[in-house]
Every structure is written in C-alpha cells, then in structure tokens.
Amino acid sequence: MLLIGESCKVGKVVIIDSIFEWKASEICTQTLAEIKKLLVNQEQEENGVTGNTVVANDCKNLVDADVMDVRSDEDQKALCGNSCYDSLNAKYKIMLDNDCYASEDADEEAGAKLQAAAYQIACQTNTDGKYCIALLGTLVKDAGTSFSLCNDIVSKLGCCFQSYRQYMLLGTSASVNAMDEAQKACTADGVGGLDQMCPCSYNQHTFANTTFCSRT
Predict the structure, then answer these.
(1) pTM attached to this predicted model
(2) Which residue, 5, 91, 119, 122, is the most exposed by fewest CB within 10 angstroms?
(3) pLDDT in tens, 190-199
(4) CB-based contacts of 142, cutoff 8 Å, min separation 6
C-alpha cells in the first residue's frame, strides 16, 4: 500500500480471513463467501480441471495484481478495465459499509479497510487523465531515498493528494497524522490546491456516496 512519508512500502490486496476478526453478521459472512466465489474459475469448478492446470479468472488476476502496486499509467489503465473490477469493488464496499472489518486490533482493522477501499481509489485520475496511484508510485520511485516531500512529491500530485488523503483516513491514526502534517507543511511552503479532491467524473469505478473525489 503506498503511503506518503519518509518511506513508502507496497502491500498487497488479498483476502485472508484468518488474520482479521471478522464481524459476525449474516451480510458480512455472505459477502465474504461471494468474494471468494468470484475468485474461482466457475467453468473449471463445474467441468473439472484439464491437464492439472488451474486457470485463473479475471477476478483472481485482479486481486493477484494488487491495484495499489507501483506500475505504469498504461498498466493501471489496463487493470481498471478488468471485467471483474466493478463486481469486486461493489462486494468490498458492502463489507466496508457494514463494518465487516471491525476488530479490537486497530492496525489490523485499518489495514483491512484500506485493502477493501483500494478498488475505489485505484482508478481515480487527475484532470489530465493520469492515474493517481500510478503517479504517486512513479514520484516516490523517482525521488529515491533523499527528497523534498513538498517539492518532489506533494506539489506534483495536485488533486490526487487530497483524494489520496481522504482514502488514507481509513488508516491508522499515525497515517492520518502523517497526511495531515504533509498538507499543513506543504501548504505553508506555498503548495496550493491541496484541499481539492479530483473530480469523480475522472474515476470510472466511483460510487455516488464516495468521499474520495469531488462531485462539484
């Protein structure tokens, strides 16, 4: 998962129900089962595996690819065109809306929420059509180990900064504070427009009640 700060790490959007203490409710249990079913090649499930080769379907390929991983703008666009994107995105939103990731461990809960919400932010672009996550990954990669957070990264993110910040509000208090401090410091350094999210019309997989983009 990409984070803005002194260092960045890349995580993986996965389904590991043994790690989290899932909230025991019918809709959570049902939706989790539906997500798992999406990852199974139904044709092979019904007709059997030929030649001992399991063929991953689009849903499994999408999850394995990790929508928040560092990749080119073109590759991110291709990922957002995956035929399973809307289905997985909708299932994960149900999990989020029903507090299915509630846990006594704040770090685990935050991590699960960020993984689930990743599909809502991963296809957001700025008004130039550049994917925010790909842009962030490229900026961090190009910046190396010694860089100016405001000059080398934040100032070049534009509206992607605030959209990403809104996404990171699902994270730990430390990650929220880091984003807030970055906005405060970079605004003081003269970087403008950091309070403006990218338009929702530039996200092909957004929801009507999203908080990650602007409808105005």
Answers:
(1) 0.83
(2) 5
(3) 999 999 999 9
(4) 152
- Looking at residue 204, its pLDDT comes to 93
Of all residues in the chain, the percent with pLDDT exceeding 90 is: 75
DSSP the chain: ----SS----------TTTS-----HHHHHHHHHHHHHTS-HHHHHH--STT-PPP-HHHHHHHH-TTS---HHHHHHHHT-TTHHHHHHHHHHHHHTTTT--S-HHHHHHHHHHHHHHHHTTBB-TTS-BHHHHHHHHHHHH-SS--IIIIIIHHHTHHHHHHHHHHTTS-HHHHHHHHHHHHHHHHTT---TTPPPBGGGBTT--TT-SSSB--
Q: For the ranges 10-24, 43-57, 66-80, 163-177, which has the lowest average pLDDT?
A: 10-24
Looking at this protein, which amino acid is placed at residue 77? K
Angle, alpha carbons 112-115-118 (nearest 5°)? 145
> Which residue, 133, 154, 152, is CA-closest to 143?
152
